[in-house]
């Protein structure tokens, strides 16, 4: 235990300073590193391997629902960005501008894409003529840039990785169905791959996407009680269609504007994984996206037969999981700590005594529970244990979210909930933006979403702020 | 045949204007499109799907040889780019500069990465201390920017997609082995996935990478007799290690510089596919990277049972290949032309008469050969035919390359070969850069590589330019 204590001392305890705990984990689990480029992060192999697993799962889901990948230019000419008024107002303050190429000063400056709506619109306007060309269901994986003054790895950086889906449809109904479908795909991914429970809902007017009609969101709760938006899906209506002339002739030969959606998730999701599952010993990686699911640590590996058996076990276990054998000359205790820090779901220990008994010790990262398993049962025991770990990680996060969700009937209850219980506050709202901003001012909590479920408002319900008749139940919370 | 002629008229014949033929194919096969961003291309779904297959195959090969993916920032501060003298001299004239972020003017301008050597170096210098930390075998998939005045889709664009591998090693021997290994992986990929034969060799001093020691290359020959470099792998020695302080302590505790490599391939490979395999009817896609390997075209699809059978066949064929059923209401002849233009390797025709006889018609895109195949043999016939197509595409390209490769003993023969035979010219060279540039000036052909194979130089061999004793056999050619 002495070693573990020493190790734990290396990272700031969560209760002491949550922000520092986060930074320590990101750094010590080797997820990211800083470079001399202010505000940008280097995503290191261990962090990037998680992102690749997220990409793979989502990309398969996108393709299974008929989406195709494309690549749009990194740069957007100023005049193109300016075509949709609200859009440019939303993004202009935070874009990076290229003004010189080679030795020349450019005649028109180019912004580094903060999002690619305008490029997709320009392209769609060109390639779509008839209802037969619809829908177009495109997606792109890339990086985008938003100039940020204060940054934190994964949560807020000048450059980040994401995917952006942009689709156009003949009818509003179809486009709205797509918007919801993509949100459901995100929710499914976050819950079933990342073991993070979500609240699905709609953003209020003031929190929605610049230039869109409706923004749907999935919101999750972090360990410190703050909310994080892990994915959004926008119904854009015909706003961009009008600005960019995206029209098609319908079955009767009449020109119509297309109905549009866009939707995205980013490397923020890696931040959510840390802040939902991590503990004072480090990261806890959800098994289904873990780059290493099982690490084999040989005990007394200098003794005859140990490394040989460890290699045999690696062969065996690799049939059912992503496995790493650490046969370096570090002490087992040191290895234990390292893979705890990295959040590897299962540690498999094997030493001379285990070999005698034809067994191994399996240690779960999430609960630290130990089980002794006969070697010949590993092929079934490992996948089962990985599923168990996923399920208990999800359940623990869900229980915590529920425990940290309060109901507030008036502003005193609201303030008390935000200050003392942290987490989500469920409270009724009249729909007036004035009340929304007052709540934010007084409590620090912003509206996270109007939930799709449990959204019933009765005649007696009144706004938590002004006391007038309520229109919506809203999830509120301090947020990243 | 009337229809085919009409269709062919839509693209400029190759012999008439090769550049226009290329542009027509890129556009009409829907590989790329232009946008309002000068010099940048939109990669459309059909083109991007090919790039994804290239990525998948290479990424698997990189990972199988121990490489890990990372992500480095898009921007490089001017001072960091300046750290390696030859490197900055090589790239400075062609970079895009970000000078403003949001409303602020930046205190130090940032270039949009033309390549990420400097960022990798800075990171490696930080994370490597001991010989135990070596080697580091990193790769990244991203886009890079080089300011180009004249551009052509895939071949030369201001922004393009690529992968860049950057590795560091304890010894020169190990680094040189890595450099060769990666070139071999590229050659394997280009020959066995893209069906394009390559010449492997070393670049001359004047053609090598800015800041490196040795550049290895694979060179292929296009339909018009011009060469295209499809991949390069560089041994960088300790040049960057010295500039960036990349040192490690060896087993004796002595500080040593690391030995470095870098290697990359780009979306240029898609240009090579077009120019090696395409014909006057359009693209011919190598089967192993074809997004659609088999297209099913129903004949008389309004007749009872035809579409039903076509759907059944789609199910069956999808077990062994990537298949698309086109049941749109276009005429079969129109569909034939469309998928010829898109270069789909196999067309499967099925109509009422075929159904009666329990057979289908298979038409190869490359040779237009037709075969009648019983339906119950499709599961074996299709994979075999795809392999046959791959092999004949490779063989045809190889024969063409050999036919277009001349040997020149003197400058007259050299000029004659370049002007009248086109293709590669094999000629002896003294090793003097003056002769190299004179050859280029007089013939228009640059040195492509000093081949690894057939590189024997005898005492009697003399330089094709100056007549002095020869040092190397060189492949020369006009190039993209």
Automatic annotation (TrEMBL), chains A, B:
Consists of three domains: the N-terminal catalytic domain, the anticodon-binding domain and the C-terminal extension. Gene3D superfamilies: Anticodon-binding domain (3.40.50.800), Bira Bifunctional Protein, Domain 2 (3.30.930.10), C-terminal domain of ProRS (3.30.110.30). Its EC number is 6.1.1.15. It catalyses: tRNA(Pro) + L-proline + ATP = L-prolyl-tRNA(Pro) + AMP + diphosphate. Belongs to the class-II aminoacyl-tRNA synthetase family. ProS type 3 subfamily. Keywords: Aminoacyl-tRNA synthetase, ATP-binding, Cytoplasm, Ligase, Nucleotide-binding, Protein biosynthesis. It is an enzyme of class 6 (ligase). Residues 17-286 form the Aminoacyl-transfer RNA synthetases class-II family profile domain. Homodimer. Its main location: cytoplasm. It comes from the Bacteria. The keyword Repeat does not apply. The gene is proS. GO terms for molecular function: ligase activity. This is Proline--tRNA ligase. InterPro entries: aa-tRNA-synt_IIb (IPR002314), aa-tRNA-synth_II (IPR006195), aa-tRNA-synth_II/BPL/LPL (IPR045864), Anticodon-bd (IPR004154), Anticodon-bd_dom_sf (IPR036621), Pro-tRNA-ligase_IIa (IPR002316), Pro-tRNA-ligase_IIa_arc-type (IPR004499), Pro-tRNA_ligase_II_C (IPR016061).
